[in-house]
Amino acid sequence: MYQIRIWENIPWQEIQALAMLFLPREAFTVTTDEALGESQSFSVVFEGREIALPQERFFYRGCPPSHPKEWKNAVKRGVYETLALQTGYRPPWGILTGVKPVKIIRELEEKGMDLFRIRSFMEEYYLLEGEKNQLLLETLQGQASLSLPGDERAIGLYVGIPFCPTRCVYCSFPSNVASQEQVALYLEALEKEIDFTAEGVKELGLWPDCVYIGGGTPTSLSPLQLDRLFDRIFRRFDLSGCREFTLEAGRPDTITKEKLKVIRDWHIGRISINPQSMNQKTLRAIGRAHSPDQIKQANEMAREAGIGHINMDVIAGLPGEEAADFVRTLQQVLDMSPENLTVHTLAVKRASRLRQEDEHYNFKKQESMEEMIRQSRALTRQAGYIPYYLYRQKYMVGNYENVGYAKPGEQCVYNIRTMDERQTMIALGAGGISKICFPRENRIERSANVSNYEIYIQRIDQMLQRKKQEVFLPLKEDRKEGF
Ligand code: SF4
Known about the structure:
Elements: E1 2-7, H1 12-19, E2 28-33, E3 42-46, E4 49-51, H2 68-87, H3 101-110, H4 115-125, H5 130-143, E5 154-161, H6 180-203, E6 207-215, H7 223-236, E7 244-250, H8 257-265, E8 270-276, H9 280-285, H10 292-304, E9 309-316, H11 323-335, E10 340-345, H12 353-357, H13 361-382, E11 386-391, E12 402-406, H14 413-420, E13 425-428, E14 433-438, E15 443-448, H15 453-458, H16 460-480
Parallel strand pairs: 1-2, 5-6, 5-13, 6-7, 7-8, 8-9, 9-10
Antiparallel strand pairs: 1-3, 3-4, 10-12, 11-12, 14-15
Bound molecules: iron/sulfur cluster (SF4).
Iron/sulfur cluster (SF4) is lined by residues 164, 167-168, 171, 173, 175, 215-217, 250-251.
């Protein structure tokens, strides 16, 4: 058993998250200790013996930290180096446990640091491994000028449809298998929110430059329901400046010729078809009711219908899959030549069935994950794709990352903007979280709708009031100050 004691000024949650990259949760404890201070900011004891680490090993360039954030990172480096020494494992993302590492290097770039200096800073300060450093820099370059909307009045719009035909074993989203009556009631409430939001957006002189309909699986709606939803959005919002409209089709078994016709008739340019795996056994094991052939058929139908931009999602680390299975999936997906390919690392979250069935799933998969991630980089590069957005989540197998790859020039604007958090994103529907950006103050506020769709239907008027108070009024104030 490891006992990690840290100075009380250090956030223990971050040290715990870091230690979990090396050890199962039950193999260590983290406690804060007011007796510790700057001179001895942490200690790691293993089976009664303290493991000493010279300060030069965790002080950045040998200098003692000068403010609290730097102390926190120094302690993280110390705990990292100690546990790396003990376990022989060096997690590739170093001490970075946050979700959006590209933001860090973008800020360094904007402060005037050149790429060479960014690379060495990330390696020495955050202990980032060379390949991850390279991936970050390539991702930054892959975003080119797309991270900033250019016009402060441009916003992003997210509309959530929280229904799926069945529930995947790893799912931690508020997705539901609902009756037709419930879906109809939900759409009615959603239409109310669309009308209300469109009014607020218009009043403030804002306009959506990207729209994303996600879920759940939006194509679990009928052709008629989809048509009505698009009609509402197009009629209420001014989409004349909209540069990208995405519909997450998700499950191939929900895609039909009729729905594709509706999508095409509304000129929805981008859809996402998410195979996750091309292995029949795996699809069954994760709770999906479709076959690999249906994925190929859905893709062919979408192309025949004239959809020009397709994203496909795959997941590395699915139950029962080794590196060779994942590589086969990747090759088959690349053969379909999607404009975008998103490679997810399975995140086994607490709310998922998989986590309840196997508490230690993450640790068991660590080794094969390394090979899967290495192959995904090599194969996408070989096929001419570039990384353009990247994020990490808690509880990811092997502490890896999710990477969006694109054919050059086909990067998804919405994905980049969501990660970059410099554009206001207004979210509608159950589980939607709006992010309101105040660029002059470099500040973001969040406003969340309830995630349970039944409560959303019951409390729709409350949701609208919340939107007014937490989204539109603050934006109005900001406008007064020179927006
Ligand atoms: S398709 Fe997505 S949202 Fe639906 S159950 Fe599976 S993981 Fe959850």
